[in-house]
Known about the structure:
Two copies of one chain form a homodimer.
Chain A: E1 2-13, E2 16-28, E3 33-37, H1 44-51, E4 59-64, E5 67-68, H2 74-84, E6 85-88, H3 100-110, H4 115-128, H5 144-156, E7 162-166, H6 174-189, E8 193-197, H7 201-204, E9 209-214, E10 217-222
Parallel strand pairs in A: 3-8, 3-9, 6-7, 7-8
Antiparallel strand pairs in A: 1-2, 1-4, 4-5, 9-10
Helix pairs in contact in A: 3-4, 3-5, 4-5
The complex binds adenosine-5'-triphosphate (2 copies) and magnesium ion (2 copies).
Amino acid sequence: MIDLQDVTKRYEMGTQTVHALRGLTAHIDTGEFVAIMGPSGSGKSTLMNIIGCLDRPTTGRYLLDGTDVSTMRGDAQAAIRNRHVGFVFQRFNLLARTDARHQVELPLVYSGVAARERRQLALEALKAVGLGDRADHKPDELSGGQQQRVAIARALVTSPSLILADEPTGALDTTTGAEIMGIFERLNAAGITIVMVTHEPEVAAHAQRVLHIRDGLLVADDSSPER
Amino acid sequence: MIDLQDVTKRYEMGTQTVHALRGLTAHIDTGEFVAIMGPSGSGKSTLMNIIGCLDRPTTGRYLLDGTDVSTMRGDAQAAIRNRHVGFVFQRFNLLARTDARHQVELPLVYSGVAARERRQLALEALKAVGLGDRADHKPDELSGGQQQRVAIARALVTSPSLILADEPTGALDTTTGAEIMGIFERLNAAGITIVMVTHEPEVAAHAQRVLHIRDGLLVADDSSPER
Ligand SMILES: Nc1ncnc2c1ncn2[C@@H]1O[C@H](COP(=O)(O)OP(=O)(O)OP(=O)(O)O)[C@@H](O)[C@H]1O
Ligand SMILES: Nc1ncnc2c1ncn2[C@@H]1O[C@H](COP(=O)(O)OP(=O)(O)OP(=O)(O)O)[C@@H](O)[C@H]1O
Ligand SMILES: [Mg+2]
Ligand SMILES: [Mg+2]
């Protein structure tokens, strides 16, 4: 499903160049549950943005379900993204003045879902992450972990076939994090592909495979049989 | 140094009231290294904001070094904060268009430090958190963990006597997180008081004492001798 071929990403900053990805090749099949680990600044979020069609490689190719998206136009990329991908951003990326229910409804608005059904799906998604009683709270009326859970509910509400989650339990206590992992495992068992960045080994243990990134390169691909 | 007496915090939200803190009493001495743990939404950040004079209790008292700050005016609170407290916010709270060096210089600007000395102190603080080569990067040119480290450097640059850190390693891989904990331990050994929220037991293990919060109440105060 996800086919990255010698992908690089450079940022030109006046006098210096930052090489965020230095030639990464990886293949992820439909239905896999993959974790990505690596040091701070090693290129994990950059890689996630490319996989999620939010950014393009500088060189190399990225095929999503056989289609070369690395050279696609922005609107074509957006269409693919809205229909198939649920993205949990590392910094949550919520709208500042919008309450939880409307944040979660947003992907359904883009998909043209009617208001009554949107509201029901959004409230169900919020209940699933333990926020049924916070639907009318805006981000500054929510704790850090509650904001993260709103972002997770938003990523799930369209029933995407691919979930990209960048540190989905970073702001959550161990118990709440385990509940979110339970949701991901259930979705993966139903056939949904999950790619998840985490720095916590206990969270990565829920995946079947771990890609280790360091300095923009893939340094290990670990599918230990006990997973 | 920190004396909280039956502190409550309520948020009135039209039809319902959220009881974020329900009567919390705790004493922290100068020079202690205390961790605060608890489920998502249990009141940890609310408590940290009150300790850091960014917010006031609804009822109860808060004495900082013997002074009742719970009824102080905003400008008096700000003066105390700027002189004595370094705050690492859960959501980092960086300025959107400002590069790392100027973010870290900001508390020194408020303290009236001259430009040349500000630059030097800011660059030293960035080096200490491993970001010496990222001084000219703006937040959207930094990884999540790098943004968090800029926030940490900013909290340390005025050599405060009290550090309040809300999930200071939340966005950091294990190795980088351990380096930050090394910095905190060194500062604490030099007499600085540290209060730190974390949901990771390995991070809490660096503190001498753990306050456990649940539903706005203190449910355990743990100073196990092996710490
Ligand atoms: N401005 C506000 N208005 C209404 N409710 C609020 C407001 N700020 C916080 N809350 C609520 O108060 C409770 C405590 O929030 P707080 O941010 O202190 O939790 P926390 O322990 O830091 O959680 P986390 O681990 O998720 O960061 C939460 O249930 C939250 O929804
Ligand atoms: N827009 C940009 N301009 C310049 N450099 C950038 C930009 N975005 C990211 N970088 C740099 O690229 C490198 C990789 O960043 P990335 O966000 O992918 O790291 P990461 O592995 O997600 O880190 P973390 O674990 O801290 O979130 C970092 O060194 C960062 O400073
Ligand atoms: Mg990242
Ligand atoms: Mg919090």
